[in-house]
Design brief:
- The protein is an alpha+beta fold.
- The chain has a single domain (6-299), classed as Metallo-beta-lactamase, Chain A.
- The protein contains eight helices and 17 strands.
- Strands 1, 2, 3, 4, 5, 6, 9 and 10 form an eight-stranded mixed β-sheet that branches. A seven-stranded mixed β-sheet has the order 11-12-13-14-15-16-17, with no helix packed on it. A two-stranded antiparallel ribbon has the order 7-8.
- The protein is globular, with a radius of gyration of 18 Å.
- The two termini are 30 Å apart.
- This is MBL fold metallo-hydrolase.
- It holds the Pfam family Lactamase_B.
- Belongs to the metallo-beta-lactamase superfamily.
- Residues 68-279 form the Metallo-beta-lactamase domain.
Length: 301
């Protein structure tokens, strides 16, 4: 289990362009080295060693996976969109690396030109603790929506799954401080996402990527013939391009998650679609190319 996250400070914001769309990575924390062996236990140093291209960006000198927590801030056709909201500050979490975090995420977001009150739409790829944390912040004794002028959006399948799930206390706490307050404020929208996906705004499309959770979605961006895809947690790390069957310890349906990766990677392989990993460390983005009977990520620095 991860123990200590590495805090980041405000700096230049990594940005990619997709036609007329600007995509900015808003860093929260680098996750501690223990995260990789816990999250992806089959990605051993021996497995990493067989794919030297993973180093030094995606694995350290001991061949331990590097992972990060960040959001993507997107400007598209005048709409200001935030994809996932990270871990959040000052929240009681069972994972020691996430417990009572104190990062400068909001400063970084504001310096990127996305002051909280200017965000129009928050897309939650799924309702896990490290993707919903900045939905709210503690104000005058209660958890209040961080983005008061935004609609928060997730898939109906995702909501319905957790609504009927027997949650442990840690997950109940996460819903109490980071999910229910936005619903109670009337800011949460549930979207039906069919197998073919659905467009929620010009150039912004949700694509179902079930397995990690039943209702998880990836976010497709398109503009002027160019495209990008934000993974959510259907792919946690580039090692899963090499081994699409390699799953996460927290996948709810590992077989479905593996099928999702195979289909997704097959559809991206050899195209110019930019893949943006929701937990990929810098350089975070790249293009998927075939590599024998699997795939490789060519980083886009």
């Amino acid at each position: 289990m991860p123990t200590t996250a590495q805090h980041l400070t405000a700096s230049d914001v990594p940005t990619w362009t997709v036609g007329d769309v600007a995509v900015r990575r808003i860093d929260e924390v680098h996750l501690p080295p223990q995260t990789g062996p816990w999250l992806l236990p089959e990605a051993t140093p021996e497995v990493v060693a067989r794919s030297p291209w993973l180093q030094p960006d995606f694995a350290d000198e001991q061949r331990v996976l590097r992972l990060a927590s960040h959001s993507f801030a997107v400007e598209v056709d005048g709409l200001r969109v935030l994809v996932d909201t990270g871990i959040g500050n000052g929240k009681q979490r069972a994972n020691p690396a996430w417990d009572n975090l104190n990062s400068d995420y909001l400063t970084r977001l504001t310096e990127a030109g996305f002051a909280p009150e200017t965000v129009d739409l928050v897309i939650l790829t799924h309702l896990h603790t490290d993707h919903v944390g900045w939905n709210t912040q503690y104000v005058d004794g209660s958890w209040e929506p961080t983005f008061p002028n935004a609609r928060y959006l997730t898939s109906r399948t995702e909501w319905d799954h957790w609504a009927g799930f027997d949650m442990d206390e840690a997950r109940q706490q996460m819903f109490r401080d980071s999910v229910h307050p936005i619903k109670d404020a009337g800011l949460l929208d549930l979207v039906d996402v069919p197998a073919k996906g659905t467009e929620i705004a010009p150039g912004v499309r949700l694509r179902p990527t079930p397995g990690h959770t039943p209702g998880q979605v990836a976010v497709e961006l398109s503009s002027r013939g160019e495209s990008a895809l934000i993974t959510g947690d259907c792919i946690h790390h580039p090692v899963q391009l090499i081994h699409p069957d390699l799953g996460s310890c927290v996948d709810i349906d590992p077989a479905a998650a593996a099928r999702t990766r195979h289909v997704l990677l097959g559809s991206l392989s050899g195209t110019r679609t930019l893949l943006l990993g929701s937990h990929f460390p810098p350089p975070t983005a790249g293009h998927v190319i075939p590599d024998g009977d699997s795939y490789r990520l060519v980083p886009a620095h």
